[in-house]
Amino acid sequence: MTTRSARRIRRSLRATGAGVAALLALSGCSSDGSGDAGSSSEPSGTITVFAAASLQESFTKLGKTFEKRHPGTEVTFNFGGSDTLAASITSGAPADVFAAASTRTMETVTDQDATAGRPRTFVRNRLEIATLPGNPDRIDSLEDLTRPGLKVVLCDRTVPCGAAAQSALRTGGLRLTPVSYEEDVKSALTKVVLKEADAAVVYRTDVRAAGDKVEGVEFPEAAEAVNDYPIALLEDAPNPGAAGAFIDLVESAEGQKVLTAAGFLTP
């Protein structure tokens, strides 16, 4: 049996179960009218969110807000490279929500019928160059990263931040051989923080999150490599009700305020 066929069977079983539950609920209400309509809609239990590494600070903050607002809930996160997370989801890893750093990566999941409904873009992100504090190498442009002797780190080409960096380099007609390709944007940034690299091409949100540990340098080619971030409830979500409520928080004005404060762009 294929993964897609198995999902269709599980979806059918869930739909049947939901129908039975609805009939029982209606029967209960008609018999004594004592049912509490609000209690069934209040989020509860644990949800697992798979999210791009660049969302770590913002989503962690929103997770705490969600738990405080809904006592009895717990939000657990798995942050990492979007492609790695997508592969885990399509391989059957239990998760409720997926927030990716590119629409291409989300398509890996939607192509396997693994989302419940169409993903929605909730923020966008733009690249920046992260340099050592004070920018001692006087890096002022993307072209400066091609200077001989400069140790530059990029995200792996397969993850969204790496694909965006390659797009920016093509826009500028530049060729760059980094000292390493990193599995996600946090790993690339860490190389600069630890002074193992002179510069890295990362998201501006990660530069902002690092504070005075790095210095950010904007470059015009980044305008041609802006990533859309989609979010989706997963088809096999163990806790779809609470997961949907968390997505609502992310997309709300309050959630958007947290995300834009971190440097994300509105859709």
Automatic annotation (TrEMBL):
Gene3D superfamilies membership: Periplasmic binding protein-like II (3.40.190.10)
Signal peptide (UniProt feature, chain positions): 1-30
Superkingdom in the source lineage: Bacteria
Keywords attached to this entry: Metal-binding, Signal
Protein family membership: Belongs to the bacterial solute-binding protein ModA family.
PANTHER family: MOLYBDATE-BINDING PERIPLASMIC PROTEIN, SULFATE-BINDING PROTEIN
Identification of the protein by name: Molybdate-binding protein
Organism placement in taxonomy: Bacteria, Bacillati, Actinomycetota, Actinomycetes, Kitasatosporales
